[in-house]
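thought: user wants a sequence for this fold. calling inverse folding tool.
action: design(structure=
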């Protein structure tokens, strides 16, 4: 299905929380809603990963209602899927729809608030576990985004003990190779030069396709069949699922960006087992070494949880050690958030003040790691994709401000001169 807004000046106001997949989905929602006459809605595409993400969404809903009291508010996303009645109970909220409905063209065609279709119903949330397929919507452009995001996978079959997302997204399901290629080509026609492949459990792509092709094979097919694609980037991947073809692609495909963000979560083996992760400390170290051997300019990011139930100081220090030993550069720190009905919620909890302390220690280390990386970039030459106001990202995802005025969607060879508070400063190198 091809998505093009009939009236680009009449788009719903969409507030997006959470992951890159939600960014992609918000664009689809925007196009579907506007095409079907729902441009006056304020739509909240929520996240359920942490209680803080939900708190921010509730706060934003109340703020929007105060500023636009006559507007109708619709809530969707993972938080809405997991607990629709909680959001429906908010007096500011008019409608709640599920993760399946928000991407369903037929639903939006029928969704007219004044129509008899509703019959006084304002909650439309199906059982996400019954969803067995994922459509490849053709998004032609991203509002306010130079890079294009393409969904290749949705859902998750794993059951990490801290995570509620499988119950918001449903089982793992893959977008076909041809639909992925069509989506990328659609974006490239509109000047996009970098594509980010995104999903809930990206490395599980292909598990439900005949022959069970791997993510690495998908990457190779994309690069082979789309020679005019300048840059291909991956969102977060699971170190336990990286296949041979993906590693081979990193080694031999220059257009595959040398930046891997890993879903690590912790450095202590006992905690990792209690999380039901499928890797241990040494597995991460070995993966990083192998990736570096294949491509020496590769850099790594990672997600870490502070204060997981039963975590003691020794376990916490193992996370600190792993960050240093693996030389993780871009680090996302999440204070443990107790999610109702997850196995971890029944484990002995760490005191909130201790969680906050350990999260701060991880963030302080993350800042040191990032600064060390930035310093190492001074004097190097990087290829920068300019996004807005002469600011862009290098292939290794470092953020760079150019001294010159450069048009967005331009890739320029840049010499890195110095560090500034937001990243790096560079100048065009002829």
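)
observation: tool returned 430 residues.
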């Amino acid at each position: 299905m091809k998505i093009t807004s009939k009236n680009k000046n009449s788009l719903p106001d969409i507030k997006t929380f959470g992951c890159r997949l939600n960014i992609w989905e918000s664009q689809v929602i925007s196009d579907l809603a506007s095409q079907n006459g729902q441009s006056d809605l304020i739509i909240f595409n929520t996240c359920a990963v942490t209680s803080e993400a939900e708190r921010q969404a509730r706060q934003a809903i109340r703020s929007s209602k105060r500023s636009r009291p006559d507007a109708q508010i619709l809530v969707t996303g993972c938080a809405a899927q997991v607990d629709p009645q909680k959001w429906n109970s908010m007096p500011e909220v008019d409608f709640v729809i599920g993760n399946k409905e928000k991407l369903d063209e037929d639903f939006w065609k029928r969704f007219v608030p004044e129509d008899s279709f509703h019959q006084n119903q304002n909650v439309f949330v199906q059982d996400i576990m019954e969803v067995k397929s994922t459509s490849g919507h053709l998004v032609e452009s991203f509002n306010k985004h130079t890079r294009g995001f393409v969904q290749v996978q949705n859902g998750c079959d794993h059951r990490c003990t801290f995570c509620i997302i499988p119950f918001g997204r449903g089982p793992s399901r893959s977008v076909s190779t041809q639909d992925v290629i069509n989506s990328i080509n659609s974006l490239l026609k509109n000047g996009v030069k970098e594509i980010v492949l995104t999903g809930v459990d990206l490395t599980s792509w292909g598990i439900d396709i005949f022959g069970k092709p791997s993510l690495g094979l998908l990457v190779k097919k994309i690069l082979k069949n789309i020679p005019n694609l300048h840059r291909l980037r991956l969102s977060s991947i699971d170190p336990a699922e990286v296949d041979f073809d993906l590693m081979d692609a990193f080694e031999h495909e220059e257009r595959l960006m040398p930046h891997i963000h890993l879903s690590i979560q912790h450095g202590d083996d006992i905690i990792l087992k209690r999380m039901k992760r499928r890797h241990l400390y040494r597995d991460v170290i070995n993966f990083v070494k192998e990736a570096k051997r294949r491509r020496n300019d590769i850099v790594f990011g990672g997600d870490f949880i502070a204060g997981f139930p039963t975590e003691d100081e020794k376990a916490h220090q193992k996370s600190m050690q792993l960050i240093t030993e693996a030389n993780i550069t871009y680090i996302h720190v999440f204070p443990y958030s107790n999610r109702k009905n997850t196995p971890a919620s029944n484990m002995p909890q760490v005191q909130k003040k201790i969680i906050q302390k350990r999260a701060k220690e991880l963030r302080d280390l993350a800042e040191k790691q990032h600064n060390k990386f930035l310093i190492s970039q001074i004097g190097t030459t990087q290829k920068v994709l300019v996004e807005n106001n002469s600011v862009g990202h290098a292939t290794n995802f470092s953020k760079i401000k150019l001294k010159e005025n450069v048009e967005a969607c331009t890739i320029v060879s840049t010499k890195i001169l110095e560090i500034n508070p937001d990243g790096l400063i560079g100048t065009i190198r002829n």
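thought: summarizing for user.
answer: Here is the designed sequence. The first strand starts at residue 2 and ends at 3.
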